[in-house]
Amino acid sequence: MAFRFHVIAKLCTAAALLLAAMPGMALEKITLQLKHVHQFQFAGYYAAVEQGYYKEAGLEVQIREGSDGNEPERDVIAGKAEYGVGSSSLLLARLAGKPVVVLGVVFQHSPYALAMRQSGGDPDIRRLIGKRVMIGSLTDELGNADELLAYLIKEGIPPNKFQRVEHSFNPDDLISGKVDAMAVYTTNEPDTFDRLGFPYDIYSPRAVGIDFYGDNLFTSEQEIANHPARVAAFRAASMRGWQWAMSHHEETADLILNKYSRRSDRQHLLYEARQMVPLVQPVLVEIGYMNPDRWHHIADVYAGLHMLPKNANFDGFMYQLDSTRPSLVWLYRVLGVAALLLVLGAAVHFSQLARERKRALEIIRKGEQRFRTMFEASPLGIALIDSISYEYRDINARYQEILGRSQHELRALRWLEVGHPDDVVQIKAQMALLITQQISSFKALSRLFRPDGSVAWIDVSVNAIDTESGGHLHHLCMIEDVTAKKQSEQLIWQQANFDTLTHLPNRRMFLDRLAHDMLKSQRDKLRIAILFIDLDHFKEVNDTLGHQQGDVLLVDAARRISACVRKSDTVARLGGDEFTVILNELNESDNVERIAQDILDSLLQPFELGAEQAFVSASIGITLYPDDALDIDSLLKHADQAMYAAKGAGRNRYSYFTPTLQVAALNRMRLTNDLRGALKGEQFELYFQPIVHLESGAIHKAEALIRWNHPQRGVVSPLEFIPLAEASGLIIDIGAWVFRESARWVQHWRQQFYADFQVSLNQSPLEFQREGESYECWVSHLQALALPGQSLVVEITEGLLLDASNTVSTRLLQLRDAGIQVALDDFGTGYSSLSYLKKFDIDYLKIDRSFTRNLAPDSSDMALSEAIIVMAHKLDLKVIAEGVETPEQRDLLAAAGCDYGQGYLFAKPMPATQFDTFLRAAAAASVEQR
């Protein structure tokens, strides 16, 4: 051993001396001029510096920020910088006689686009006509403005149809309305818009076939002529840097923050990185590759703008990669010497190992008696086997026990005769190597058949045995029974990767298969579709028929979904009533829609659950890889958003993911986050709308309506934020605040205007059904204010009465005992029946505005309203009509006997202080009339 290490040490020393003898190379200093400030847009160049790629190429590179897009071209032509980063307008510079040469393309597609505020309708670029637009600098000769101007001309919007103003590069100008549209980088400004919740549409020239390159690395003809090797080395190191940066987003973002710029935070840098992936296309296209046909396409666009002659010749504009290469002969020679030294070292190493192995075998032969003792007593099954005939020469007791056969039976058999055919093939292949002395031992996991037909799993270890000269080759086979361990592992694996109910892959297996399919998709250039399936109304089945029947339905649903897809596709159950499908190797998207519709149709069929039948449908969200996202988390998030869009559109349908869904989801998330601080920030305000006694015109009631004064968005409608409050659980705290504010104002108005004044407040079903003390705290608060329960009316929906649980009944009893009255809101639009009105203590019915809106003599709405009024009075209930907007509606309702009216005819909802003034004026007018 000492001799071997000594020899290897001497060889390594010789190699080190050879490498040290190489002449040192001084680093050449060069400058790279960027076209903008430091950001992820130039990440590859920072990576080439920090990873040492430039240094390995013999270069010391200074990277300078740019103040405008044309600075790189001016500085490279003037000799102030050897290299620059420019746009596709470099083509114009070349044909204007400037000796610029493009070394490589970084952005295969330009990120330049137009942004406009969303209008509420479908996106329409023609909204730009007559508006103020920021597209590039008005003083620059060249720039990205060219592709946007060509895009607008192709859309029928020449520059004389809009007002072009100087570009400030400040997104606030678009958000505040200072301009109506602005040119943006899709890798940059949209992140700012999303964070501020600004609704916007993006218009890209690619939509009409104008596909420019983005950032291009370029130099001058003089640099190529004077320093060809340096140009090749700089280009190669830069492209290495880009490859590293595009595969190490987080490390590159940290590098920029630590050494280059903190203008943007880490979140924005990572946003840039994600948006750059489909533009740079690092997986599909070698970074730096440029296609002459694409440059001809760009030249044709410029010709259409009359900026170039048609069929212009731009020979020499594109760098010829193979024109020059630095000599690497010396490197190859050094590597050859080093490889030779390593081979010699390995040879010495293995030679020593062979000698040691022979000595070890000699010791084993001399210790035969000790071996025999260990052989018989070993906990492992051991057999000595003829390597040619496969006959057993010696067998210990444990080997016989594992195989379930006596020594006599085994002597009559050949080795491997009781093995599983699939495993025997592999072991024989290894034995061929062992016999030819290519290997001295091997291990395998194998199956064998016992006499009773059961299968045992064994770990097999085979070692060659030296024999006397001329004797048959033998090998030692040692086996260990691992059947119990294998079965346990199989069970654990099954439970870890498959759903125990449906036996479909679970979330873990689904994610593993999706990752595998995504890699295959990258290689084969085929799409993948992910379907996110949620069963509609499944909770009702569980609640009415029980969880056991619900499980039966889930198993049948899994079977139906699986029957709609190919065997190569994956159907998984993520949990509950959520299923996912991976449709791989897609050639046409039509197949996705057909499969989705087949799944919907299959799930619509009735489910037989014992003596009962159940009917459910499904909502399916669809997202495509790589079109919609490049990572698993984003794909699942997009599919989930599309599924909720399908639910929102009415269920029993499928919906594709669109960027609009992502923006909406971000807006909901940010609005929910803002909602959490709204109470503490005192951003809520109560509005009140009067409820008028139709016979006398007196105002002794009002409905409390909540409004949210958002610091950035202004007044947010309850229709927008109440669902978010219910989903997040914030509705409980908000409802408590509404109660306290309503109590405070009704106390004031009872003291100032009318002793029996009442305020109605709406209750969410989640508030009404909450667990805990419920209305006890309300009663305590009213008592502290010396208010009777009759000062408040709680408005609930008809749907609550359908819930026959004890919770609903208990809540209504608590309200009755406290003297708080109950109004049934939007009556006539739900599913309640007269039996519920009789069963529960209801004081008021509110006729929905859908009936009031179309009131006319002898109309069906008039007949329904009269019927509701007569029925309510028979049950000793008062009636309030909502949505009264005309004197005619008021008069018809009054003539029908309706007790109260509420609507814009009397007054719109108004802030509490304004309503206070309104009551004061109404009281004064009442006094004058008396």
Automatic annotation (TrEMBL):
PANTHER family: BIOFILM ARCHITECTURE MAINTENANCE PROTEIN MBAA, DIGUANYLATE CYCLASE DGCP. CDD domains: EAL, GGDEF, PAS. It holds the Pfam family NMT1. The chain crosses the membrane at residues 330-350. Residues 367-438 form the PAS domain. Residues 1-26 form the signal peptide. Keywords: Membrane, Signal, Transmembrane, Transmembrane helix. One of its GO terms (molecular function) is catalytic activity. SMART domains: EAL, GGDEF, PAS. The lineage of its organism: Bacteria, Pseudomonadati, Pseudomonadota, Betaproteobacteria, Burkholderiales. Residues 668-923 form the EAL domain. This is PAS domain S-box-containing protein/diguanylate cyclase (GGDEF) domain-containing protein.
